[in-house]
Amino acid sequence: MNYYAAPVRDLRFVLEEQLEHRSLKLPVFEDASPDLIEAVLEEAAKLANDVWAPLNDVGDKKGTTRNSDGSITTATGFAEAYQAYAEGGWNGIGVSEALGGQNLPEVVASSVQEMLHGANMALGLCPMLTAGAIEALAHHGSEAQKDRYLPKLVEGTWTGTMNLTESQAGSDLSKVRTKATPEGDHYRISGQKVYITWGEHDAAENIIHLVLARKPDAPEGNRGISLFLVPKFLVNDDGSLGERNDVTCASIEHKLGIHGSPTCTLSFGENAGAIGYLVGEEGRGLNHMFTMMNEARHKVGVQGIGVAERACQHAFAYALDRIQGRSPRSGKADCTISDHLDVRRMLLSMRARTDSLRALALTCAAEMDTARHGESDEARDQAQARVDLLIPVIKSFSTDQAVEIASLGIQVHGGMGYVEEGGAAQLLRDARIAPIYEGTNGIQALDLAGRKLQRDGGDAMTALIDDVNATADRLKAHPRFASLGEALAAGSDDLRAAMAVVLAQGQELGQDAVQAYATPFLNLAGHVLCAWQMGEAALKAQVAIDNGASDPFYTQKLVSADYVLKQWLPVGRAQRAVIDAGMQCLSDFTVSS
Amino acid sequence: MNYYAAPVRDLRFVLEEQLEHRSLKLPVFEDASPDLIEAVLEEAAKLANDVWAPLNDVGDKKGTTRNSDGSITTATGFAEAYQAYAEGGWNGIGVSEALGGQNLPEVVASSVQEMLHGANMALGLCPMLTAGAIEALAHHGSEAQKDRYLPKLVEGTWTGTMNLTESQAGSDLSKVRTKATPEGDHYRISGQKVYITWGEHDAAENIIHLVLARKPDAPEGNRGISLFLVPKFLVNDDGSLGERNDVTCASIEHKLGIHGSPTCTLSFGENAGAIGYLVGEEGRGLNHMFTMMNEARHKVGVQGIGVAERACQHAFAYALDRIQGRSPRSGKADCTISDHLDVRRMLLSMRARTDSLRALALTCAAEMDTARHGESDEARDQAQARVDLLIPVIKSFSTDQAVEIASLGIQVHGGMGYVEEGGAAQLLRDARIAPIYEGTNGIQALDLAGRKLQRDGGDAMTALIDDVNATADRLKAHPRFASLGEALAAGSDDLRAAMAVVLAQGQELGQDAVQAYATPFLNLAGHVLCAWQMGEAALKAQVAIDNGASDPFYTQKLVSADYVLKQWLPVGRAQRAVIDAGMQCLSDFTVSS
């Protein structure tokens, strides 16, 4: 029962019908045709289904082993599955040709990521972190650094890591203490980093660590932090691997889930000091890291969607197999539980939410394509402003929902959901990390309600809400969808009203006061934006139906849309009342043990 | 950091101030004084804090071991901790003196249960199941059976189990196949039962299994099922233990949580057939079992509250210790995260919800006391009608909330929440079973919206909603609480309106149609009833403040009440819109893999 079938049909619906292959219209992607993209998705699905998915359970059960010399042995088959991925050229899918990649749009890269994370989230983390390293080096590395490190990273022969957190420096990275002492053309790095995903492993021949550290004379706080590149094996001028650098895995975490992903404590400079190289400008380490953080946050949202999709499939398969009770629909004795209305409620809730989250994440990916490659400054800036708003929503909302969806998946299984043998429990355990890493969901909410909303007085958000309203108007004008349009318009009004409250709080009382409203505001935005996407999906599905499509896929999208707009959106809309109630209680509250 | 302090102060507030020791006014409890109850709570807290709580982590890490002979070794210290409980007389706390118990009210027994489950949920399950067996025997056993088995069960020397589920018979117990073949004055039982909590263990000298099975000539379906008593060791006429019965533990489950609790597959009659004795009437096994199921469902709700309380304490302690970032309240650098408003939002949400769930569960316990011991038939019947409504709400809503609260507890911990060392993850893993066992939460919702609501046309629910309105009126009339009263009244109106929809559906389309509305209706009821309790709590806390109480405990109850009524209730009220939207989408939905 523990299988996974990559949702190519659903992905294609969003890319082709909902987004109308918008990204392919950008000149930079002129070589990419719809046929090519279809072929890419089908090939990625094969890798996901046949190679990665069967190892999901193995990774969970075997976990990773730290050997006495500090090396890590990943679960059986993981190294080979990673290599199959690298050899297939998947690592460079969204990377430009100039850097050795396939130069496909972000919408395609994100689709592939969703499939791979759905197949095997623990393994998917390895390339996810590498992508961050590629991004940071491509933007901030010197030409020599790019020449030396990027080709191997892009082809996946080497992997990358992000070394930010230290035990005293988590959400507050200004407290980073790792030291970088200048020595000729390089630095000696010493200190300890924690929670380093795939920080050490046996799946690739080298690991390129990107490390936040400070020079001995650097000022306190953010401005003293620089970014350094620290290879596991030093790289000779001819590109061959040289000496082992002074960085070791001191321990690995025993985690709730993603057991197949080694989460390492890395010790830099236990001996002579690890050799590292400054990347970008001195004192701009945090800024440089945030280049990759933003991308990574979108990817974590996509990861949540991948796991949510797998949880759907797992629960659907069980519900279609498990016989229990009399059907309330046909009256037949001994029906499968998929006939019970309360089980159907859970299944539809899982399916419809996952559909809507996917559409939102890919819509953001399309904006990312325009932000990078749009034909005018104005087009790029507008798209970037929208990406900036959407990313914290996609990161938090998709991952919070993924946890709920995985938990519902357990519930559908009944007792079998609670025993590990059933497979549903792993999905909750795996999903639970996603609201925490790459900036907790609370941090995302602050980013949205604080920085992103306040800096332009809500202009970008207003434009987004206007687009939601436009969709609501189109729904209202459609003979079939008037009630969906009313529902969406009401949600949109709530979001606009809540934005006004949050903006007023920010202007009157400053960014600190906004903190209290941040999570309810993001939650409201998530619901409204997902409902927006499903309104769009309904309109596009109806076009297909009107054109004679007989595929039940389309009528089922209408069902998903109906659920999201009428059954799920109201729950999100309640956050307006929460915001209107004010947040005095949070100040009156005394936290005491 | 992994500690627990039983919430005696909070429990006493509900028992003494909110419920005004209502149960003690029943003649049957004339020997129980407030002072005695205070002493009992303090003693139970010691057992919970000093003996049970330190083993919570041990049970999780060590789990239980099944030995090659089928015996079970529980985690180090568990057997002793159980024996300390039994020797302290705690097992009989809510049992009448006639049966060898302490004859204390259910409100007190439930309070003690909450503390013990908060301390160690996995261990708490052992006496919880025994209580069910006591209840079933006390109601349905013959005098000879009571004489032979009850004293040892009540004193806790022996434990009890409930053997219902078989692999093909879960929510649908009509499919039970275990066979009971008559043989003289007893039966030979053969078959396999799954998910038997504490089905085999080393913590007590005997185990009394209560087993659903059918005679060879019994009709199909529910009416063919009878209840049998099957001791692990046969009991001689003089009360001494005789031969080992033919029941063995075939395997134990590898579960997501409650690792300290052995969940067994029990094989009856692998050899000659296990000797069993009919309990109560032939063919009435399911009815007899439901006597204990109802009690057990309340206990599972209380268990959820216990774990939620522990998750609160765990998160509060971490938030008061973890330093990160600048305080948005004082501006001070390097504050504890308990100063961040978004963290405070999570903590208050955890605390306020737990407070309200506790008050509701104990209010139900007070009704249980009246239902059992009220002075008139009318008083008993009225109380029972209310208990019947409240139990499915308390079971489902407390356990769903416990899962959310435990998950928020992880979130408060950030990265440390995801590593097992932090202790927060165990609480989510443990809590996650509670929405599944003793009837899934979906089954509870059907029980409420179907049987309980429809059978009296909503009379009992109307009386309950009237009481909620009365509280809303008192709040509205109070100069401090007008806005809380408005909020509660609005919630109450929603519940009344939703009830009308559900009743109409049931009358027009039958019980099957009600299924679609059941979970949203229960969810709405849970929110409104919790809000009702916190409205009551606010009124009582204000009385104490008006009387000059300076304990900040009271002002903090007002903060909890404010949160529940203004920030949490609106989310529940959204379920009215969900219900009003109708459930057509659930029928239109095609479940396909």
From TrEMBL, chains A, B:
Pfam families per UniProt: Acyl-CoA_dh_1, Acyl-CoA_dh_C, Acyl-CoA_dh_M, Acyl-CoA_dh_N
Enzyme class: oxidoreductase
Domain Acyl-CoA dehydrogenase/oxidase C-terminal intervals: 283-451
Documented EC number(s): 1.3.99.41
Cofactor: FAD
Reactions catalysed: 3-(methylsulfanyl)propanoyl-CoA + oxidized [electron-transfer flavoprotein] + H(+) = 3-(methylsulfanyl)acryloyl-CoA + reduced [electron-transfer flavoprotein]
Acyl-CoA dehydrogenase/oxidase N-terminal domain ranges (all copies): 79-156
Entry GO MF terms: flavin adenine dinucleotide binding; oxidoreductase activity, acting on the CH-CH group of donors
Domain Acetyl-CoA dehydrogenase-like C-terminal stretches: 465-588
Function: Involved in the assimilation of dimethylsulphoniopropionate (DMSP), an important compound in the fixation of carbon in marine phytoplankton, by mediating the conversion of 3-(methylthio)propanoyl-CoA (MMPA-CoA) to 3-(methylthio)acryloyl-CoA (MTA-CoA).
Stated name of the protein: 3-methylmercaptopropionyl-CoA dehydrogenase
Originating organism: Vreelandella salicampi
Lineage: Bacteria, Pseudomonadati, Pseudomonadota, Gammaproteobacteria, Oceanospirillales
